[in-house]
Structures are given as structure tokens and as C-alpha cells.
Specification:
331 residues, alpha/beta, Rossmann fold, 2 domains, seven-stranded mixed beta sheet, five-stranded parallel beta sheet, elongated
Length: 331
């Protein structure tokens, strides 16, 4: 797929299980409300998530292309584009801005105090300044908090249980995604000390830097890799799985997509469910509900996924205790 340049507003349309794109929004009726959907991920890696968003939207009576238009802005990790994208959406007064990650949510909040915002963030939205409280958000924003920051220690513990001989763990973060990086690096040290692990931090913000990061992991002889729950990284799940297999590196990820692509393990909330809920909230706002009256949703279920085939390739024996608590085991 070729990348989408800034300023081109395009829509993904699912047709009978195939993906047809791009489809221009320009020809829609002028009275049709427009949703600005801005994400750090790539379009290619977000087909299922976009479909879940549309499903939630349709449950409120809004069907893309019939009575609502959606402009998808896929940043693919290029956070430098954020300010321009948000400025354009605000200038045109779109009906709702949907921002399914931290950086895009903060950029939207900084760009407008009037256009409704539906976010999905991994950290406390009150601390981020997105809402006044979870129950009564106030202002123009509401959405879903999916606790990525709070489950860092749990993820590291599960990695330790799966690779008990590991001592040196490399932590990979994306410095362009400031909030996720800060939260990961804040939680890791104490969790690592409690498990007797030594950690080293490596940065990567591009596909080429991910390649270089794995070369560094091999060079430094790290025993395992902990990958921050970053949207850009999730969009590179195939690249991660390929490199981890090639270099025989056990790795923990912050999204199920990584494990489905061949990664070893992940622990996170259900990604599709939060996109679905974002669609529901967006539809409710289009119907007239104010964001201030929609409480911030919080997940009640976390998914622990193990790729047993990858574990065998890495020579790991998965303890029965871990298999027993796994929500999904990929054979």
C-alpha cells in the first residue's frame, strides 16, 4: 500500500471481506456529518480496528457513506503531522474527532475546546488533562481508558514467568510517543528490581530504527525484549515477529496483533472492544449527547495471549500455570 499524504482525506470501505481503498469523501452530501479519525497507526495494520469502530457507530444508527462520512488520517508513527491534521479538522469544524491513542488525544484537546473528542488512551485521562473526572468528564472530551501504563509491571512479570532464566531485558520505547514512553519508563524500574532483572532502554521511532534496535539487542546479548504498548509498534507487528524469530529473542508486547503475527506473548485490554466503544460514543454524540455527559469507560477484562508455536521455536517450555490463565493460546 502506498502511504497517504497529509491533506488527503480518505475512507476505508469493507466490501465482502475485502478492503477497497481509498474512497474520496469529497463527493458526499454537504449536510452529512464528518468524523475526523486520527490514529498513530497505519491503515494496513488497522483494518479490524476500523471495522470495529464502524460496527459501534452503526449500532447507533450511523452507517458510513450513507448518513455519515469518516475521514481516516493514518499517521503511521509520523507524529510531526499531528498539528497540521488537527488544525485542518478544526478549521473545517468536523462533527467529532476520534483519537484512539494518547498523543492524538492530547493534540486534539490542545487544538479545540468546542468540537467533541472521543479518545482511547492507555493512561489516566484525568492526569493527562483530557477530562475533569472519569464519571463527569466535563468539557468536550470523553472516551475509553485502557490502562496500558498500569499493567506494565504485570506484563514484565508474565515475561519473567515465561522466560525464567532471563536476567537482562531490553525495553523498547518510541520517544515520539511521549506519554507512553514516560509511563513505561516510570513503571519498569521498580517492577524489574522486584523480579531481579537488569534493564536497558532502546529508542525506535521508525521502521529502520526498529531493525537497528534488534541488532542492538543481539549485540548486547539481552535475554528478552519488552516492547512498549505503542500504536506505531503495533502497526509494525509483522516486522517485530519476523525480527524476534530471526534473532531468537523472546518478547512481550502490548497488543494481541503482535502475537497473532507470530510474536511470543501479549497482555493488554481488548483492542477491538475499545474501538467498538469509541464508535458507540461517537454515534451518541452525533445524536446530540454531550461528551461531558458520557462517563469515561474502563475495561473489565484483560487478555493474556501466548503463541505456543513461537515458544517452541524459541525452545521455551510454557508452564502449565501460564497456559491455564491464558485467554488465548495460538497453536
Amino acid at each position: 500500500m502506498r502511504s497517504h499524504q497529509l491533506g488527503r482525506r480518505q475512507v476505508i470501505t469493507l466490501l465482502g471481506g475485502a478492503v477497497a481503498w481509498p474512497v474520496a469523501v469529497r463527493g458526499q452530501q454537504p449536510t452529512m456529518p464528518i468524523i475526523g479519525f486520527v490514529t498513530a497507526r497505519s491503515a494496513e495494520a488497522s483494518v479490524a480496528e476500523a471495522a470495529a469502530f464502524r460496527e459501534g457507530l452503526s449500532e447507533t444508527g450511523y452507517v458510513e457513506g450513507q448518513n455519515v462520512a469518516v475521514e481516516y488520517h493514518w499517521l503511521d508513527g509520523q507524529f510531526s503531522r499531528l498539528s497540521s491534521v488537527m488544525a485542518d479538522l478544526v478549521r473545517r469544524r468536523v462533527a467529532v474527532i476520534v483519537t484512539p491513542n494518547n498523543a492524538t488525544a492530547l493534540a486534539a484537546k490542545g487544538a479545540t475546546t468546542t468540537i467533541p473528542i472521543v479518545f482511547a488512551v492507555g493512561e489516566d485521562p484525568v492526569k493527562l488533562g483530557l477530562v475533569v473526572s472519569l464519571a463527569r468528564p466535563g468539557g468536550n472530551a470523553t472516551g475509553i481508558n485502557f490502562f496500558n501504563g498500569e499493567i506494565v509491571a504485570k506484563r514484565l512479570g508474565l515475561l519473567h514467568d515465561l522466560v525464567p532464566k532471563a536476567v537482562r531485558v531490553t525495553v523498547l520505547v518510541n520517544p515520539a510517543n511521549t506519554q507512553v514512553t514516560e509511563n513505561t519508563l516510570r513503571e519498569i524500574p521498580e517492577a524489574a528490581r522486584g523480579l531481579g532483572l537488569q534493564t536497558q532502554v532502546i529508542n525506535a521511532s521508525t521502521s529502520r530504527e526498529i531493525d537497528a534496535a534488534f541488532a542492538s539487542v543481539v549485540r548486547e546479548r539481552a535475554d528478552a525484549l519488552f516492547v512498549a504498548a505503542d500504536g506505531f509498534f503495533i502497526g509494525r507487528s509483522v516486522q517485530f515477529a519476523t525480527l524476534a524469530t530471526r534473532h531468537a529473542i523472546p518478547a512481550s508486547y502490548g497488543g494481541r496483533a503482535h502475537v497473532e503475527a507470530g510474536g511470543l506473548m501479549s497482555y493488554a485490554t481488548d483492542t477491538l472492544e475499545r474501538y467498538h466503544q469509541a464508535g458507540v460514543y461517537t454515534g451518541q454524540i452525533l445524536k446530540g449527547t454531550k461528551p461531558a455527559d458520557l462517563p469515561v469507560m474502563q475495561p473489565t477484562k484483560f487478555e493474556f495471549v501466548i503463541n505456543l508455536r513461537t515458544a517452541r521455536t524459541l525452545g521455551l517450555d510454557v508452564p502449565p500455570s501460564l497456559l491455564a490463565i491464558a485467554d488465548k493460546v495460538i497453536e
